Amino acid sequence: MDGSGVGTGSWKRGFFTIWGGQAFSLVGSGLVQFALVWWLTVETGSATVLALGTLMGVLPQIVIAPWAGAYVDRWNRRLTMIGADSLIALLTVLLMLAFLWGAAEVWMLLLVMFGRATLAGFHWPAMQAATSMMVPEQHLGRVGGLNQAMYGLSNVIAAPAGAVLIALFPMWAVLSVDLVTALMAIAPLLVIPVPEPDRKGAPKPSLLGEMREGLAFLRGWKGALLVIVLYMVANLLLSPAFSLLPLLVIDHFQGGAGEYATMEALAGIGMLVGGMALGVWGGSRRRTWTMLASTLALSLAITALGIVPAELLPLAYVLSGAIGATLSLVNGSMMAMMQASVPFAIQGRVFALISAGVTAMMPAGLLMAGPLGDALGVRAWYLIAGIPMTLLTLVYMASPTVVHLEDQVMDGSAKDAKERDERSPGA
Predict the structure, then answer these.
(1) Is the sign of the CA dihedral 325, 331, 334, 335 positive or negative?
(2) What is the mean pLDDT of residues 210-229?
């Protein structure tokens, strides 16, 4: 499979039509999420309620995602995406009616946030698995980069757009944006076919059995669990650094909302630029090298953010952009590597298991970072997180097992690659 005929667009038209609809939906979901969090903030002024809101978004990814991934491998993935998008839109309609009738309550918003996150837990692995089957292998890195650019653009657009709409319109009208973007995501899926893996053969095991199959695949793929552990540790240590950023701006840089907003916006722009760069470049031939080198750069940037003097705020802005860019490179290259290596028929459960394991580290990291930040100062956490991650990444880069991870073709992967070639004429 070479890239000589990619210009024919045989796979591009269908995939990018679906991808474009999903991009609009992502922006709409981000805008609505901002609006919901802002309403909770204004109405309650409670840190506990805001923490519960965060928990509603994280819990389904930890508890429900592994089950959702197993179902995704059983179900038609196109219909799964349509169903998830449609039910998310239905939850939005119910909440719109509550606001329209003046009956909205805090518990309703929390319940809707939990429901949206649960349905997203079905949608995400279905979309990633569908991408694997629609995109030629050598372009998975580029598509991964474009996905990260899309997330970065969403971060840049959603919050300011949400703030403007909240100032101009009632809450029920703001929520209606989600319906429009959901329709834009669903419409292409109704008319464009999405390939399905070959599910013929041995009888299906139980759902728990299928989940165990996904875990057994990862355990049997030499080096894969090591990489997953690296990113679990990364989420444990580095995620709190983003949550503590407002305190770093206030306590150390003596800034305010404007300075914090600037750092967040530059991180989003960095994600956009990093994703576009990966979209053009595609990553190194060994995607693990792109992944590890970007993780090293990310860890160094986090460390540097903890030692920048207060008078060098512009340098902190630069580091925020670098952090966003390296995040795009890490996430995009890792997903491309997994999509190219994991057999089509088990991608839903494998991706969901990885997502659940990595996401579970986030609340654990926050529980550690809060007390340590209070006791030692918020800057200390950036060093506690960045220095060990830098050293650990260097160890991984010296490990032949990790570096040559992609050289090991697992059961079904070679057959899947051949099928993907045949579905992508001229690619």
Answers:
(1) negative
(2) 84
